[in-house]
């Protein structure tokens, strides 16, 4: 059976002077540091057998994918299922102590952290991301693919394929900016999950998700 690797790449740091949770809002692009991170990842993958690059439709993901696609002389495909998770706090500041969480009108959104009640259910995120993984595997069969997505979707996918509970502490996600969570397939069977940080480690609480 053929061996195929599907790398899930979290985009690089984003310019976000308002420090809001921007989610799926348009117009949020990579910062200068994010652009450097994207280039570092592209350099780390330059000698890999990449034949397929696909990204979330959001600008920051497309910009992160660009140097990888250019290095391998292939076009970027777009998969809507790689998009950031929907969140009812989109457009608001949610930092503890100085944001929307201080306002009682928002507290009902927090009633069920296991689903979660403030956004797209974890199981729905996991299912759409797994679908994206298998589409990328099929497109790159026998080679390697890169899927550029976002922190929560990637971390949810990893927990799902590792048969862990999907509910988790966001402060403990192992998914740094511009990190690679790589799914290794033998045929259509997932046999390994690997994680690397070619652009270095970042705090999971950092803005820029």
Structural commentary:
The protein has 209 residues and is α/β, with parallel strands linked by helices. The protein has one domain (3-196): Rossmann fold. It contains four helices and six strands; from the N terminus they run E-H-E-H-E-H-E-H-E-E. The protein has helices at residues 32-44, 59-72, 122-139, 151-161; strands spanning 3-10, 50-55, 76-78, 144-149, 180-186, 189-196. It is globular and about 55 Å long. The protein starts with a strand and ends in a 13-residue tail after the last strand. The relative contact order is 0.24.
Please summarize the sheet with the most strands. Answer: 6 strands, mixed
Q: Helices and strands: which structural class? A: alpha/beta
**Multimeric status of the protein:** single chain
Instruction: Count the domains.
Output: 1
- Inertia-based shape: globular
Under CATH, the topology can be stated as: Rossmann fold
CA(first)-CA(last) distance: 36 Å
Determine and state the CATH class. Answer: Alpha Beta
Query: Mean of residue pLDDT?
Result: 92
The overall strand count is 6
Beta-strand content? 15-25%
Q: Unreliable runs, pLDDT <50, ≥5 residues?
A: none
Query: Judging by the overall fold, what is the CATH architecture?
Result: 3-Layer(aba) Sandwich
Helix content: 25-40%
**Strands of the biggest beta sheet: in what spatial order?**
3-2-4-1-5-6
Radius of gyration: 17 Å
Order of helices and strands: EHEHEHEHEE
CATH superfamily: Phosphoglycerate mutase-like
Q: Treating each run of at least 4 consecutive H or I residues as one helix, how many helices?
A: 4
């Amino acid at each position: 059976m053929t061996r195929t690797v599907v790398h899930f790449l979290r985009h690089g740091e984003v310019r976000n002077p308002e420090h809001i949770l921007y989610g799926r809002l348009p117009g949020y692009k990579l910062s200068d540091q994010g652009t450097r991170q994207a280039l570092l990842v592209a350099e780390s993958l330059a000698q890999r057998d990449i034949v397929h690059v696909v990204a979330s439709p959001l600008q920051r993901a497309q910009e992160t994918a660009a140097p990888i696609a250019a290095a391998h002389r292939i076009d970027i495909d777009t998969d809507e299922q790689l998009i950031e998770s929907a969140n009812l706090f989109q457009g608001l500041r949610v930092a503890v102590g100085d944001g929307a969480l201080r306002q009682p009108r928002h507290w009902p959104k927090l009633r069920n952290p296991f689903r979660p009640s403030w956004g797209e259910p974890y199981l729905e995120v996991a299912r759409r991301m797994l679908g994206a993984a298998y589409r990328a595997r099929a497109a790159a069969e026998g080679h390697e693919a890169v899927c550029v997505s976002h922190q929560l979707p990637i971390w949810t996918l990893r927990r799902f394929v590792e048969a862990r509970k999907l509910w988790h502490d966001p402060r403990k996600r192992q998914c740094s900016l511009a990190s690679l969570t790589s799914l290794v397939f033998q045929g259509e069977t997932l046999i390994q999950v690997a994680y690397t940080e070619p652009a270095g480690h970042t705090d999971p609480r950092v803005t820029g998700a």
